[in-house]
């Protein structure tokens, strides 16, 4: 019963963050699963199978409320699906112990990027004129985001959402809705890749079911939460969580002396707290209307 509650909460927290930011479901849930000693390929497969259900529900909701650019969805789906399928097959054929620190290093990098983006780029992107993304640019964007989403258990949102948000003339709500809707196809493709490479017997249906349940509960709550909390504050919170959990994984994987654990954790927590304070201060200087329309 205790494990059931823990995994439901992982799915709940991951979907809550993803629904508010348009990113980080895979990164957050995979990061937390890795801390339980689950092999990277199995963790990523479980997360993507759960995402088939959660992204379908999220995409349907975004379509209903008009938050989707259908043209962008079509342009993202094919390259994203190919990248996710190839990434899943690539990850499945590598030994878990060998790839785990590299996956954590990738997730750690994403964590720092998410922190940087929501602390410093959020307000800056309102002031700079950006060229509209061309149709040809969707191909490498989809391939790269899909590949890293499958290999790292997350990356579709953290890569696709910021790139699309950086382009002038695209509403934030349309970007989030479009990326979330397209993610359904990416989750399906990655899951197929894992099943072909790993087989059905490697999937732990308990993890999948609990992640699905937590995600379905969180989906409507996330839609409400995004209205009352600034997105860059949520970005800093999830970035700090990803950094903290992956630092722990890397410390164990690299055999660092235990004497270093406390100062490293203290440094991460101090930096996280300072970043939250900075995000709150930035929000007070920025009118709420600007934050919602950026």
UniProtKB/TrEMBL annotation:
Transmembrane spans: 32-53, 73-96, 102-121, 206-226, 233-254, 260-280
Claim: Transmembrane helix is one of the keywords in the record: yes
Any one cellular-component term (Gene Ontology): plasma membrane
InterPro entries, sorted: TM_pro_TauE-like, TSUP/Inactive_protease-like
UniProt main location, coarse: membrane
Keywords assigned: Cell membrane, Membrane, Transmembrane, Transmembrane helix
Subcellular location(s) per record: Cell membrane; Membrane
Topology in membrane: Multi-pass membrane protein
Family indicated by similarity: Belongs to the 4-toluene sulfonate uptake permease (TSUP) (TC 2.A.102) family.
Record-given protein name: Probable membrane transporter protein
The organism of origin for this protein: Thermolongibacillus altinsuensis
Upper classification of the organism: Bacteria, Bacillati, Bacillota, Bacilli, Bacillales
């Amino acid at each position: 019963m205790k494990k059931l509650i823990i995994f439901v909460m992982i799915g709940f927290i991951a979907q809550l963050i993803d629904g508010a930011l348009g990113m980080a479901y895979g990164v957050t849930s995979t990061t937390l699963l890795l801390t339980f000693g689950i092999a990277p390929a199995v963790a990523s497969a479980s997360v993507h199978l759960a995402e088939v259900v959660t992204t379908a529900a999220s995409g349907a909701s975004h379509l209903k409320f008009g938050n989707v650019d259908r043209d962008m969805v079509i342009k993202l789906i094919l390259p994203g699906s190919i990248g996710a399928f190839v990434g899943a097959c690539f990850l499945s054929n590598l030994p878990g112990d060998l790839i785990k620190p590299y996956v954590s290093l990738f997730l750690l990098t994403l964590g720092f990027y998410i922190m940087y983006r929501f602390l410093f780029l959020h307000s800056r992107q309102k002031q700079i004129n950006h060229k509209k993304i061309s149709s040809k640019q969707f191909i490498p964007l989809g391939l790269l985001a899909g590949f890293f989403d499958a290999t790292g258990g997350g990356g579709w949102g953290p890569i696709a959402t910021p790139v699309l948000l950086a382009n002038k003339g695209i509403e934030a709500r349309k970007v989030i809705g479009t990326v979330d809707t397209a993610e359904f196809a990416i989750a399906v493709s990655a899951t197929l890749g894992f099943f072909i490479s790993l087989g059905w017997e490697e999937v732990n249906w308990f993890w999948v079911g609990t992640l699905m349940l937590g995600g379905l509960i969180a989906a409507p709550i996330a839609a409400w939460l995004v209205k009352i909390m600034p997105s860059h504050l949520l970005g800093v919170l999830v970035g700090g969580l990803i950094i903290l959990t992956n630092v722990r994984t890397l410390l164990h994987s690299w055999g660092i002396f235990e004497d270093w654990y406390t100062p490293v954790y203290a440094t991460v927590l101090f930096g996280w707290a300072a970043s939250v304070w900075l995000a709150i201060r930035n929000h007070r200087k920025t009118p709420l209307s600007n934050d919602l329309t950026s």
